[in-house]
Amino acid sequence: MKRYPRVQFRKRLRELKEEVEEMGQVTLNAQKNAFEILIDFDEEKLKKVKNSKEKIDELNFELERMCMGIIASEQPVAKDLRFIEACIKVGSHLKRMMGIAVNIAEVAEHLRKEEVPKRPIEDLTHMSNIVQMMVSKGLYAFLDQNMNMARELRQDDDKVDDLFDQALSNITKSMFENKDSISYMIYLLFVARFLERTADRAVSIGDRTIFMMTCEKP
């Protein structure tokens, strides 16, 4: 017979939270490195990003195993059950964000020898900074159960959408000015889309946080 079952249960929930936090830090570092090598290619950082994907796959597998173990043995209800379910969802979003970071790193490989115009890169850098902030905010909102931060993510996403439109406009303009650049400039369109999709995932983490706390759809 287990002693102090509630203490043990709370310990297992804290371990879940720590697992999500580690996944978040690995993902944030990979996103930062992926965009940096887009600006200034670095073979070692490229390897780090690709290795981080394997790390996230392992952490996510462990997270799901831990969640299933707690559900099977503890039979949690109400807010505790929603927290465990949210951990699985957030882990899935972080895993997908890591995949997108690898996509950006792969684009960097294609662009490493090209002279990319300054304006599109400035747009994407601004966009990337906001997206990384959103991922960090989404992660913190979930871990700290901060409703205000979770709600702010939709406003942040509007800024990313505006920058996405601006980036597309400037990338397209650069293509018309130098048609020889079209073959590689099209990769920047992919980067803009990757960043926009990452922002959407951050918003989803915020929405999941709100549902976990209120049981209401945002």
Task: Outline the structure in words.
With 218 residues, the chain is mainly alpha-helical. 33% of the residues are buried. It has 6 helices and no strands. The longest helix is centred in the first third of the chain and has 35 residues, at 5-39. 88% of the residues lie in helices and 0% in strands.
Name some characteristics of this structure.
mainly alpha; 88% helix
What is the element layout, followed by pairings?
Elements: H1 5-39, H2 43-74, H3 78-111, H4 118-144, H5 147-177, H6 182-214
Oligomerization status of the protein chains: single chain
Q: What are the low-pLDDT stretches, counting only 5+ consecutive residues below 50?
A: none
Q: Structural class of the helices, strands and pairings? A: mainly alpha
Number of helix segments?
6
**Largest beta-sheet characterization:** none
What would you call the shape?
Answer: elongated
Mean pLDDT: 93
| Helical content (DSSP H or I, runs of 4+) | over 70%
| β-sheet strand percentage | under 5%
H/E order of the elements? HHHHHH
Cα-atom radius of gyration:
20 Å
Distance between the termini: 42 Å
